[in-house]
Amino acid sequence: MIPRKFFVTSGKAFSPISELNALDQALKDAGIAQCNLVSVTSILPKGCIQIENTEIPVGAITHAVIARMDGVEGQNIGAAITWAFEKNNECGIVAETHGYMEKESLLEIAEWKILEMTKIREIEIGEINYEYQTMKVPMDNYGCVIASLVFYPDYK
Q1: What confidence tier does 82 reach under pLDDT thresholds 50, 70, 90?
Q2: What angle do CA 149, 154, 156 make, to 5 degrees?
Q3: Which of 7, 27, 82, 90 has a beta carbon 3.0–4.6 Å from 33's, enabling a disulfide?
Q4: Which residues contact 122 (CB under 8 A, 6 or more apart)?
Q5: How far apart are CA 146 and CA 66, in angstroms?
Q6: Is residue 41 over pLDDT 80?
Q7: Closest CA to 76 of 116, 38, 103, 42
C-alpha cells in the first residue's frame, strides 16, 4: 500500500464536557471526523502529490500523520504539521509538533524538527510547508488542536 495523494488540514475546538468531545469537534473542524484514522509516521513516498482537502467516504480507514494537543482552561495549546520534499523529488518528510505554546514557538520548533530529520537522513529539502492551529482554552472548557497530513485512501 503506497499512498499517491495527500492533503493537509487542521482544526480546533473546545468543549465543557470532555477532552474527547473537544477532539471530536476539532476533527469535524478539520473535515476528517467521519474517517477511521490510523496514525502513521512521517514519509511521503516518491510521486505522492498534494491535493485540496477532499471529502473521504464515511468510515474509510484513513492513514494520517497527526499532531494533537489537548488542554484545559487557560492553557495555550498548539499543534503543527511540517512537510517538505527532497530537492531531487525522491520522497518527502513530515514532522509533527505539539505542546503548550503559541504560534511563534510552535513554528520555530516545527522547523527545528524537520531540519533535524534532514540531518539524520542526510538529505536536502526544498520549501518547508506548515499547517497549524493554536488556541487559548476558554474558562470551564477542555480544548483540542490538531494538524494532520492525511493520505487520501486511493492506494495502489
Answers
A1: very high
A2: 115
A3: 27
A4: none
A5: 7
A6: yes
A7: 103
In sequence order, the 6+-apart residues with CB closer than 8 A to the CB of 20 are none
Q: Is the dihedral of CA 116, 82, 32, 27 positive or negative?
A: positive
Q: Are 64 and 149 in contact (CB under 8 A)?
A: yes
Which CATH number fits the domain that encloses residue 147? Answer: 3.50.20.10
Model pTM above 0.70: yes
Q: How do residues 106-150 score in pLDDT, each as one tens digit?
A: 999 999 999 999 999 999 999 999 999 999 999 999 999 999 999
Residue 99: pLDDT band with limits 50, 70, 90:
very high
In the chain, the number of structural domains is 1
Return the residue matching grid coordinates 511540517. Answer: 82
Backbone φ and ψ of 131, nearest 5° = -135, 130
Locus of grid cell 527545528: 112
Determine the structural domain holding residue 23 and report its residue range. 5-151
- What's residue 1's pLDDT? 84
60 in a structural domain:
yes
Please check whether residue 156 lies inside any domain of the structure: no
